[in-house]
Design goal:
single chain; 207 residues; alpha+beta; 5-stranded mixed beta sheet; 12 strands
Length: 207
């Protein structure tokens, strides 16, 4: 069974909120336990299974920007347990930010088991290591406060980075996602009137 990745709510002070977005009313539930803060990469949200993969839309069709990912995924797909999925960013095509020195074109940010539970970050890192997947960059972790997150938002170079995502360090269930995960996105992140997938593909650069 294929499962659509849940929508990530914006943190209350996120700059890039649009009319279609949802915003957390409070960070109390989010910060009630140790959290992980990772860089929000400007790519295509993608879920990998042992039997295939899809973008955020489960019925996403073929697009040339996914050809590299198809080859990459084929190298380890048989090692993904049945019922599990690896979620991450397909960074092959340039979207709003242009990367010049990526370590790879796919970076993982979560692993979900057959019970639709998001694994604890340390467990996810073990899975990534076994499959040869590079995780997204970690910016902060531990028992953080809202002031810590606001400070990080102020100090980020938003000309080079899209923002960040906050999630529990521990495991959590799919139906808890809406209250336990939040994001900060820079203002005016989508700079073009035309969606990236309808334009000529410009590959991002690798290190």
């Amino acid at each position: 069974m294929r499962i659509k990745h849940p929508r990530t709510f914006h943190l209350p002070w996120s700059q890039g909120v649009t009319s279609d977005d949802k915003v957390l009313t409070s960070t109390e539930a989010l910060l009630s336990r140790p959290v992980l803060v990772t860089e929000k990469m400007d790519g295509e949200n993608t879920s990998l299974y042992t039997t295939g993969f899809h973008a955020r839309s489960i019925d996403s069709r073929h697009h040339p920007s996914r050809d590299w990912l198809a080859q990459f995924h084929a190298g380890f797909a048989h090692d993904i347990p049945v019922g599990w999925r690896i979620c991450g960013e397909n960074l092959y095509a340039r979207h709003s930010l242009g990367y010049t020195s990526l370590p790879t074109y796919f970076m993982g940010f979560s692993v979900w088991n057959e019970h639709n539970e998001c694994l604890a970050w340390d467990d996810a890192l073990e899975v990534f290591a076994c499959l040869g997947i590079t995780p997204v960059p970690v910016l902060m972790q531990g028992q953080l406060t809202e002031a810590d997150l606001r400070k990080l938002a102020r100090e980020m170079d938003l000309t080079q980075h899209e923002g960040f995502v906050v999630r529990p360090l521990e495991a959590f269930a799919y139906d808890e996602y809406a209250t336990k995960v939040g994001k900060f996105v820079r203002a005016g992140h989508v700079q073009t009137d035309k969606h990236w997938s309808h334009q000529a593909i410009i590959p991002n650069g690798l290190a």
